[in-house]
Amino acid sequence: MLRVLTAGESHGPELIAVMEGLPSGVPISAEGIQADLQRRKLGYGRGSRMKFEQDELTISGGVRHGLSLGSPVALRIGNTEWPKWTEVMNPAPVDLTDMSRGRGAALTRPRPGHADLVGMQKYDFDEARPILERASARETAARVALGAIARAFLAELGIRLVSHTLSIGPVQVPEGSALPTPDDVDALDADPLRCFDAATSALMVAEVDAARKDGDTLGGIVEVLAYGLPPGLGSHVHWDRRLDGRLAQALMSIQAIKGVEVGDGFETTRRRGSAAHDELFEAEDGITRGSDRAGGTEGGMSTGTVLRVRAGMKPIATVPHALRTIDVATGEQATAHHQRSDVCAVPAAGVVAEAMVAIELVNSVLEKFGGDSVGETRRNLNSYLEAIPESLRTAPASEAALIAQEEA
After folding, report:
1. Are residues 247 and 360 in contact, defined by beta-carbon separation less than 8 angstroms?
2. What percent of the chain has pLDDT over 90?
3. Less crowded by CB within 10 Å, the N or C end of the chain?
4. pTM
């Protein structure tokens, strides 16, 4: 089983990321991980922090000559802004009376929508700094770095991922629009909102501009697609082995994500049963489905078709015009602390969601096929697929998609 762990604070010296359980032989390069860290900063509506804060990546363990060793992979992501925060975030004891102003001032006006107030209650702090530093979405840089490694492993098995933006605020990609493939990643990253529909992207840009002018923020929905998955990842036999349940937990763990859908999700609940499920047909290369409403899972297991999961991000809670709150030091009504923030971070959320889906898929692949090396995992996967009786084999996803179009 794969295990991942991250450590570090938003304005601390570095983030630490560890991945244990990765087989040997996975191609890993600092350049590849760094490229994904840059992708995380993409998107129209991002704040100034993305421009001046650089991620200084160091591979500290688990990799030799560009390949994983089978031992834990350890990464360090240095914070170039650390020199400005050495006193505020110093791990050594300090005289708090010397930090009553500027960056060191106590944050006693918790922000609605953040972890500030509840974290202060839970961990017994009288100000929010110790909470917001770890709750910050800055932590997702470590996840994206680990996600790059996870995607490299999956690619060795013919599994490829892509993420894209479906909506920003009220602006949505039209139903039935074409889905991107992994070959479209560069085009998506070049789009201001990482949207695959150019006309919708232009409307999204206008919506972000309007929110910025109003001193407000925006949320939206992102979708992750995984191509090339075998059938049978996950299991129906117990709640904690269901692939869709694990993916939902992984995505809901991302800061500001408030909802997850698999396939058509909540839209399916508004359909009658006769129009809600993916009917089975016989094709030349095996069994195929006439549609993909389930999003590549049935009964908590992958079907072998394209996996499709969506995550909904709430508007950023650090609103520029500042929401009302209570100053816990005085008990008086106040406005919340406002630090640098984005108008919209949905495109970045897509990159983070892609990383989390990749990590969870690696976990499911290793649970199913095992292997201490990539070669062993690949042999086990191929043997499994070859052992499926011809009468039960499913047609390639591309053919299934073609039949679905003909049925429509």
Report:
1. yes
2. 81
3. C
4. 0.93
